[in-house]
Amino acid sequence: MTDPRTQKQRMLTGDLYTADDPELAADASAIAHWMDRYNAAQARTADHRLSLLREAFASVGGGATIRPPFHCDYGYNITLGEGVFLNFGCTILDVVAVRIGDRTQIGPCVQILTADHPRDPAARATMLEFGRPVTIGADVWIGGGALILPGVTIGDGAIVGAGSVVTRDVSAGATVVGNPARVLPPR
What we know:
Elements lengths: L6 H6 L4 E2 L3 H18 L6 H11 L2 E2 L4 E2 L3 E3 L5 E3 L4 E2 L3 E4 L4 E3 L4 E2 L4 E3 L1 E2 L4 H5 L2 E4 L2 E3 L4 E2 L4 E2 L4 E2 L4 E2 L4 E2 L8 E3 L4 E2 L4
Parallel strand pairs: 2-5, 3-6, 4-7, 5-8, 6-9, 7-10, 8-13, 9-14, 10-15, 13-16, 14-17, 15-18, 17-19
Antiparallel strand pairs: 1-12, 11-12, 19-20
Pfam families: Hexapep, Mac
InterPro entries: Hexapep, Hexapep_transf_CS, Hexapeptide_acetyltransf, Mac_dom, Trimer_LpxA-like_sf
Organism: Sphingomonas mollis
C-alpha cells in the first residue's frame, strides 16, 4: 500500500520525504522572499522586526529578537519563547519543529539543524530526507558558532560553549563544550 500523505505531511511528521517536492519548493520560495525582507530590515525598529518574525514563525514570544542576517528552511516550524535572542548569522533548518524557550540567548553563526538524511547513499541520491525535532529550553546560553544536530534536546539553564558540536541531549543546568560536546564538571 502506498502512503497517501503529501510530501509535506511526511516531512512534518519526521518521516522520509522527497525534498524537491513542488509544494515544499513553493514554501521554500515563500520563505526566501520573507528572508529578503527580514534581512533588509536590520535598521528598522525592534517592533517591526518582531512583526516580521510573527508573519513567518509558528509562534513568537514578546521581546524575541533575531539579528539579521538570518536563514531558515520554512519558518513555520519555529517557535520562539519570550525574550529569545539570536545574534547575527544564525541558521535554522526547520523541516520539523524547533522550539526555543524563554530568555534563551544564542550567539552569532549558530546552526540549529533538524534535517537528516538516510545513511544509504542510494537512498540519499533519490532526494529522500527526514527530520528530527530540536528543543532548546529556557534560560539556555549557546555560544557563537555552535552546531546543534538533529534530534537534540537542551535542558533549561544549560550552557553550550562556542564552537561546540552538540550531538546528544544536554541535561538542564549542564555546561557542554567541544566536538563532540561533552559535559564539563561542575565548578
